[in-house]
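Sat 14:20. Reprocessing the chain from the morning session after the first attempt stalled halfway. Input below, unchanged.
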Amino acid sequence: MGLALAALLALATACAGQNAPLLIGMDVTPTVPPPSPTVIPSPSPTPACNDPAAGRAAAAPATVQVVAGTTAGSGVAVAPHGRVVTAYRLVRDHVLVSLLLPDGRKAVGQVVAWDEASDLALVAAMLDGLPTVRWAPAEPVPGDQLLALGYPFPSQHGLGGQPTVTAAVARRPVEASGQKYISLGTDLNEGYSGGPVVDLCGRLVGLVLARLGDGGEAALSLASARPIVERLAATPTPSLGPEESALAANMATVLREGYLPSGRYAAVTAASERFYGLHGICLDSPDSYCQKVLFFLGTRYLGADTQRPSRLILDVTPGERPGEVVVIYASYAPGDPDCCPTGQPVPIPYYWDGQRLRPGGVPPGH
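Finished this time. Tokens:
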């Protein structure tokens, strides 16, 4: 399942009784004509959920790609103000993650709550206006047509974009560790982890979280997922400290510049301010061998290490002197594949002298 940033909108409504008693005052005298009969409108028929295109159109705008460091998976917005639910194992040990929306927007998310037993986590996206899904009124029954949405990884078009939709069929329910799962009868790429499973009306029936012993995928069902998500959604968003707040702002800039913050960064003190170097991966690359380091003084963007990306950057570390960040580049010999450079790594220091960013050398390949 997926390794690779919002609370739940509970919209299930209870049907009103069709024969509710009409309340009539007991002090009415015989000379007053009786009130006109109250017309009770017939309930609107429940729409049939039989159109996969309609289900996709309803759920896809709320399905996002969640990237924690270099681990990518999926999530779904379940409440206004950018509350996203995803797989806990995807965001474990992270405070800040990246969220790539299907409408092209990119945002930083804060991991605010989680339930390790169910493998669910809640991420608060630092934006508004994210579409949401609503819960289905009931569990699917075996044979129901379903849709699983997510972001297979790696992708031919790079990170983000529209989610992939895979048809599934509800099979027997499965009980495990006190949780109820829906067997989906299909195999899913690991990038689907944390993504939604919906009916053909686009209503949420579960979240992709488990693989069965026979190799098929399973979703944590409506009955188990909904109460946990509602509890997580009630958690207030914790305040970030000064360093995390600056890092969140800088991650947002890295995303706007077209790069994914990988989680590798260095922060040092330069002339009483914080000097940051953040490692980024090209968002439009189908693989991760397209990388840059972007530099910040506080939250002011200073520029990148090179004009064009490098093939592979091994690390970003604090330098030996104040105001210095060292970027360690891979060195490729002719014919080396992307994965396996054979040259000696090349460390290049970058120094903020109080007025400008000064590189201490030329990276290999540049």
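Confidence is low (pLDDT under 50) at residues 1-46.
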